[in-house]
Amino acid sequence: MNFVLWGEDKSCKDTLGLSFPKPLVVMEFDIGGFQRANRNLPHLPIKDWYNQGLIKLEQFIVPFQIGQFDAIANNVRQSKIVVGMKELFYKFASAFIGHLQDPTIQTIMVDTGTLLYDVTCQGYLQELQEKQMPLRPDGLGKDGKPIMVSLYPPSLYRECYIRMRGFAYQGKAFGKHLVVTHHASDEYGLVPGSGGTLIEGKTGKRVMHGWAQWGDSADVIGHTYWDSKEKKPYFKVELAEVKELEGMEFAEPTFEKINNTIRMIRGE
To answer: Sign of the C-alpha dihedral, residues 200, 205, 211, 213?
Structure first.
């Protein structure tokens, strides 16, 4: 099954993900998330699973995008050229395909999908920039156009969507559990302004940050949050292939709890 988990920082997204069937591999962009989650809890022996080799960690460190370092002047000269993102994307893709083909791995967890989407888009932008290289003396690309600094027009994002959908569909095709976490961010929309007008601004609602096209390929999408009063994590299902699951909340959520509920609804 494909699960998408989103929530605020330290809302136990990783903890829920690490409860999925083992062996499990964590493909980590958000460095430090696994380290925080790698401890035994009253309801989950995560550290024991890791020590037993049932959980494997792989880290994908996003490179600096700060231009060229001038050692003589001891400063950084800003550059619009994307570096290292294409290589990081293909490093991830190669490892992901390898895990799909490994019959011993049951679950692939990506932490976070927010950063994976950013790496995917920036990696594609780097590919487009490289097609304009080498730069001419006047700073324009070899095609006579200014160097691309963003994926514009928006139609260029189509390639990013295709690549992200590839990860989602291949997980299903190979019969793996795919768990993808996402950060939360402010929702923007039309809000009341002065004089009864509507202006673009923060709605006050928090939403999933990153690739928003999971709906057609995820079996379950939900929100993790920490209840400070009860001192425990919760998971609320927002969208699910099993429609009866939508709106349900799970205290101290685990894959087993959610899967057992799905099986009960299906009458299995």
So the answer is: negative
